[in-house]
Amino acid sequence: MSYEQIIAPAPPAELIFGDWYPGLRSGDLRAGRMTQALLLGVPLVLGRKRDGRIFAMRDLCPHRGIPLSAGWFDGENVQCKYHGWKFEPCSGQCTEIPSLTKFEILDPGKIYAGAYPCEERDGYAWVYLPEPGSGRLAGSVPPVPELPKFSDRYRSAHLVADLPCNVDHGIIGLMDPAHGPFVHQAWWWRSRASIHEKEKHFEPIPQGFRMSSHAPSANSAPYKLLGVYGEPITTTIDFVLPNRRYETIRAGAKWFSSLTTITPVTASTCRIDVIAAWNVFYNVPLVTSIARFFGARFVRQDQETMIEQAQGLRFHPALMLIDDADKPAKWYFALKQARLNGTDEHPLTGPVTLHWRS
């Protein structure tokens, strides 16, 4: 069954606003062109001005509600197709209303279309979506998320997949440590026969938690590749609200890092984006193409499982979270609820050790 054949999406999830989300690949933005996107149920139009700056606007004209993407963009101003109103896209300020005459006192500069902070980082156009109804942003916003890098020379790759589930299911699937031998069975990764007991140490970090630095799983072939350098291998995994999983693997001067995000498209659907960078085998020909091929297969396995899970979620079954393998999922829900409630409560008061088999 394909994604498109699933008629009823998973139940909606409450969404976290007031943070940065990857809107789309920044390489898709060209000067003088507009591109549509949907984030957290908010219709957006993104583009790149002649000076190279990128922008994200709410894709609705404040006059009569027609999508601004139906109009024109000359590299400086976005013009509405309905009545020709023009807007500076980075600020959203109206610069012209063609129908005005000298007999009217309306000041176009006091009218604003919705415009959101938008920054280019790691090949993405990141968009900051404030709380609904909060008005235009007058203060500062938090830093744009960025993939950690540990040398000036490195290679990188991006992956993306749509998921027919709400962001909560996407995120707890992302952090689930027990599905690997079943969902990701492959000669180059691991098999069901490779299952053994794991002991991992976790610690609280702001807005998230960390799987402390440790030797990676011996039953995962990609990690073994770093062994050719003869250096001890360590990996650290962070989860940070609202939707980010950072993984860093180090072997002396060699490293691999990834940032995976599960972004709500609507309250019932989401998207997985992966940016990875590395200096391992930097001079090996086609290494980026090979990494992208196997990475895409890995993400596709998760996507296919989520599509199959969505068939069951249509019937709104009662679900379970167990210890210890599901403890990170419980932490996520507690952190999210604290964020939504505006409190600084953290489910971890100190280091915790978990055990599971995978």
UniProtKB/TrEMBL annotation:
<dbReference type="InterPro" id="IPR044043">
    <property type="entry name" value="VanA_C_cat"/>
</dbReference>
<keyword id="KW-0001">2Fe-2S</keyword>
<dbReference type="InterPro" id="IPR017941">
    <property type="entry name" value="Rieske_2Fe-2S"/>
</dbReference>
<keyword id="KW-0411">Iron-sulfur</keyword>
<keyword id="KW-0223">Dioxygenase</keyword>
<keyword id="KW-0408">Iron</keyword>
<dbReference type="GO" id="GO:0051537">
    <property type="term" value="F:2 iron, 2 sulfur cluster binding"/>
</dbReference>
<dbReference type="Pfam" id="PF19112">
    <property type="entry name" value="VanA_C"/>
</dbReference>
<protein>
    <submittedName>
        <fullName>Phenylpropionate dioxygenase-like ring-hydroxylating dioxygenase large terminal subunit</fullName>
    </submittedName>
</protein>
<keyword id="KW-0560">Oxidoreductase</keyword>
<dbReference type="GO" id="GO:0046872">
    <property type="term" value="F:metal ion binding"/>
</dbReference>
<dbReference type="Pfam" id="PF00355">
    <property type="entry name" value="Rieske"/>
</dbReference>
<keyword id="KW-0479">Metal-binding</keyword>
<dbReference type="InterPro" id="IPR050584">
    <property type="entry name" value="Cholesterol_7-desaturase"/>
</dbReference>
<dbReference type="GO" id="GO:0051213">
    <property type="term" value="F:dioxygenase activity"/>
</dbReference>
<feature type="domain" description="Rieske">
    <location>
        <begin position="20"/>
        <end position="127"/>
    </location>
</feature>
<dbReference type="InterPro" id="IPR036922">
    <property type="entry name" value="Rieske_2Fe-2S_sf"/>
</dbReference>
